[in-house]
Specification:
β4 and β5 form a beta hairpin. The chain is of the alpha/beta class and about 140 residues long. The chain contains five helices and seven strands, in the order βαβαβββαβαβα. Helices cover about 40% and strands about 20% of the residues. The strands form two sheets. The chain has a five-stranded parallel beta sheet, with helices on both faces. It has a two-stranded antiparallel sheet with strand order 4-5. It has a single domain, classed as Rossmann fold (3-Layer(aba) Sandwich), CATH 3.40.50.2300.
Length: about 140
């Protein structure tokens, strides 16, 4: 019997990274995951109200909401400004960031945390997620 730990939305446009996140989150963390970079699908998933945490890539090449291109920073801020979704923890992930970039990304996105890709310490990543969703 699988113990459900939580539902995680992965917003990532690189298929390799999606596969890696799903592997880490499902096998090590025992989380259920949904992955998409389609803006309208993201909104639909959030409206369904079953997401406990979001993993959000900073640079989204093909993500549009209402025909406007959005990146992970803008999309994260939009989620945090919505009264129905603002309590969902967001972890921003980026491959290209120094410490000052991370501080700027966190401030602009309003996300809870920022992790550098590639994720190398899987247990720390999983434990951080569990701490954010209280499981």
């Amino acid at each position: 019997m699988k113990l459900e730990m939580g539902n995680i939305l992965i917003v990532e446009d690189d298929p390799f990274n999606v596969e890696l996140f799903e592997l880490i989150l499902r096998r090590i963390g025992n989380f259920d995951t949904i992955s998409t970079d389609d803006g309208q699908r993201i909104l639909q998933i959030l409206n369904d109200g079953k997401i406990d945490l979001i993993i959000m890539d900073v640079s989204l090449d093909n993500t549009y909401i209402d025909e406007k291109k959005v990146d992970g920073i803008l999309l994260s801020r939009m989620i945090k400004e919505n009264k129905n979704w603002k309590s969902i923890p967001i972890i921003i992930v980026t491959a290209y960031a120094v410490e000052e970039d991370i501080n700027r990304i966190l401030k602009e996105s309003r996300a809870e945390l920022c992790f550098k890709k590639p994720i190398t310490n899987y247990l720390e990543f999983i434990n951080t997620i569990k701490g954010l969703i209280g499981k």
